[in-house]
Amino acid sequence: MPTRRTPWLVRMALAVVRVVGLVVPKRDRGGWRQEWESEIQAQRTAIDDPAAWGAQMQLFRRSLGSASDAAWLRRQITRDSEILHDVRHAVRVMRSRPSFFLLAILVMGLGIGSTTAVFSVVDGVLLRELPYPEPERLVAVWQRDTTSPDRPRGEVTPGNFLDWRAGTSSFVELATAEPFAMDYTGGERPEVFFSANVSEGFFDTLGVRPIAGRLFRPSDHVAGSNAVALIGERLWARRFGSDPGVVGRPIPLDGRPVTVVGVLPASMELNLLPSPGDRDLWMPKVFEDYEKSQRGPGWWAVIGRLKPGVTVDRAQADLDRVSARLARDFPQTNGTTVAFVEPLGEHLSAAVRPAVGLLAAAVVVVLLIACANVANMMLARAADRDREFAVRGALGASRGRLVRQVLTESLLVSVGGVVVGVVLAAWLVAVVTELAPRELSRLADVALNWRVVLAAVPIGLGAGLVAGLVPSWQLSHPRSPESLGAERGSTSSRSSRAIRDGLAVAEVALAVALVVGAGLLLRSFQRLLAVDPGFRTEHVLALQVFAWDRLDTARQRATFFDDTIRDLAALPGVVDVGAVSAMPLIEANINIQGPFTIEGRPPKAPNEQDIANMTVSTPGYFSVMGIPLVRGRHLAATDTMGMPMAAVVSTTMADRYWPDADPIGSWIQGRFAGRAVRAHVVGVVGEVRHDALDQPARAEVFLAQSQVGFGSMTYVIRTTQDPASVVEAARQAIWARDPLLTFYDTTTVRDLIATSVAPRRFSLVLVGVFAMTALLLAAAGIYGVLSFTTSRQTREFGVRMAMGASTREIGRLVLGRGFRLGTVGVLAGLAIAGLAARSLQSMLFGVGPFDPVTLGVVSGLMLTVAVVACYVPARRAMKVDPLVALRD
Amino acid sequence: MPRALSSATALVVDALDRGFRHGFDILDATGLPSGTVYPILRRLEQDGLAASRWENPKTAQREQRPPRRYYTLTRAGGELVELARARFPMLAGPAARLHARRG
Hints:
The structure holds 2 protein chains of 2 kinds. Chain A is α+β, with helices and mostly antiparallel strands. In chain A, 52% of the residues lie in helices and 16% in strands. Chain A folds into 4 domains: 77 residues, no CATH class; 340 residues, no CATH class; 210 residues, no CATH class; 193 residues, no CATH class. In chain A, the strands form 3 sheets. In chain A, strands 1, 2, 3, 4, 5, 6, 7, 8, 9 and 10 form a 10-stranded mixed β-sheet that branches. A 6-stranded mixed beta barrel of chain A has the order 13-14-19-16-18-17. In chain A, helix 8 crosses helix 12, helix 15 packs antiparallel against helix 19 and helix 17 runs antiparallel to helix 18. Chain B has a single domain, classed as Winged helix-like DNA-binding domain superfamily/Winged helix DNA-binding domain (Arc Repressor Mutant, subunit A), CATH 1.10.10. Chain B contains 6 helices and 2 strands. In chain B, strands 1-2 form a two-stranded antiparallel ribbon. In chain B, helix 1 packs across helix 5 and helix 2 packs across helix 3. The C terminus of chain B is likely disordered.
């Protein structure tokens, strides 16, 4: 009696009970089903809340237990000896046809293995609980701008956090972490430790205990107190050899001694914070006065622990109240800002959910095809064994007995399949985690564990049951005593032939749908790689630094970058050097957005102001990156601090704000890094895909580093050879000017591109592998059906040949049949793909879900595979000797 | 009387005695998997240690779900409780706590 659409896992659970019920002895079956169904349908939380994954999964797991229940009941009425007899007979049968059963086991193993591997991924990514006590009470709180609905998880500013904490009553504790980085100078070379500054109670909110030392005390969060830090288990091992003596000892961080007071377990290193996610150093946050009033777009992560009994919805309502007040009090910054609460961990898996969903769909298809394949093989075997069953039936074996015999065989096949599948799954899991991009960091925790191996057993038994059901249903038809005397050459009944053909068509159809999906992803990927990023991708090294310490004034910073760029340019193998504040595609991006006005135009209302990205660069940045000058001039060495500020704008910016005019010569006013900026536009440069290849270029204003003196910069170094080969020399050159400077990120532009497309590559490779598997299985299916029917038609072919048919005509007969099966399957598959297209839409780029090229190529491929699969049976049919065929 | 009293059986018997009456309730109370609990319930019923009956359909309807099958210990089953608790003293653990929380 569910009031809304029942979630699919719950429907699966009900289906399991329905199918398993077939095993229960008839007299108990009705009550048995009612008992199980009532229990499942009473689980309101799992049914009514579509997001209650954990509850639904538990329900599904429980439904699998019905198999043991049913088996127990069945055993009560079946004497043990009968089961043993069935198994022994099945083993005998299998040993008489080893190649047939080995093939069946392999096919089954393929299906079970891939399903099990994907289940491990789902288990590890979506179902595993966070490693903290009472994780269901933990939430993340984000700051959402109602005008950009596609980005619900905005990071938070300290001002808003403090007001949320003061104004709500739903939380035991609300805490925040500010992503940070510290330069560590206690080792051989200066090094960056990625860190977080955490507010009071952060670790208590999570419920984390230190593995050595202590957590922060309230007094640590007071301005002027001694500098203290907590380090993560990994960093502890990597830098301090897991020496317990490090606790209580000062280490040099950002040029001052900071006392390590404790070590936190590795579970703290989860990706709770905005990227880059891995943090292994924590310091107590002391709020500065200016931070307390900081609002607008932020960069802090906020977590909370709900009071017992408080739901996420209530906490949301609680925060909404505060947001509404803030919107009234600070219309400029908070007019469209609301808080967004979600269970902690939800955002950890949000990035992987589409990929995992796709994977799960692909793998279910493979499992279905494997089942259909084995079912078809068993069906063919059963037909071959007409006589055996007829004899046993005539000797008094009940139909139920015969059905059980067939089911025993298919279950034995699936037991073998489980063994093969677990081995395959172990390998697949290793491959999947290896391939996974960093965004899917939770995948790194995925492992084939006992839970997953145990899951393979019900999956396998279910598959065996499904594969055995069709042939047993066939068998359960009354068998005429004439079969006893029937000859091998008799054509099988119309209905069994229809079932076999239907299964083969279904296999082809499912495979086509999957291959179409993989094809669309492949095309999207090609399109994506074909996108012109607007900058040079080869032979460019990027070194990101935050040069604020020891360089107090803008002039010092400008000089520092001037000097280091000159030094770098003098290195052997270096062609050209530049620097930029906002490097395209780099992980820790320094994106500075701000309102600006164009002089001479009427002023706009505060909430309608034009926004542009403010970027600082040196003249060399454009030449190194190959960003073309469209009009005017580039930034130049002559743009120095005494001169009026120069600005170069991107084409997007020029088109958007000067649609009918030449921007060159215009004066723009804005703010950069806290101070007013007035600059005149001197040039227009080409488009750059800054955020991702599939994101549009942005409105960007480039200011001259020689006039701004910014500290957060990325050097771009164009090299003649492999850029990795100059990394060491480049670092040494910069250290010669400042031996304590650390490198936040060192990468090549080529790697930046590769990283940016990694999630797509990941989905593509996995779906591609499963699609190929499906294609092979479908080919095997067609081959199986045709070789079976041709072997049964030997006599018919003999007659035809005796009547004058040529071998070519016989061959065409077989090929034509295979082609027909293939065509029907392809058409059905295209229909399935069409129905599924919408769910794939969001993962496509530059190609529609009904891309004619993909559909055409896949159809052609599948038909070719179908015809190739017919080749052996056709050859066999053509070699039939009419004399032999008629005599047999 | 079952040949050997397993810890799982003891847990189920204990849960029944504490008033957990239907399948999933007992799963929650014992923390055992469904594939273990149901065969135990069947065996207890077969051995005459537990009895089952269907819930009053009206009650179920009021709660908008199909009627459940309720299990209770018979008198013979009641004797088993003492045996179970004597052999597995830790039974005073999880189920008891959960029971207490529900009032």
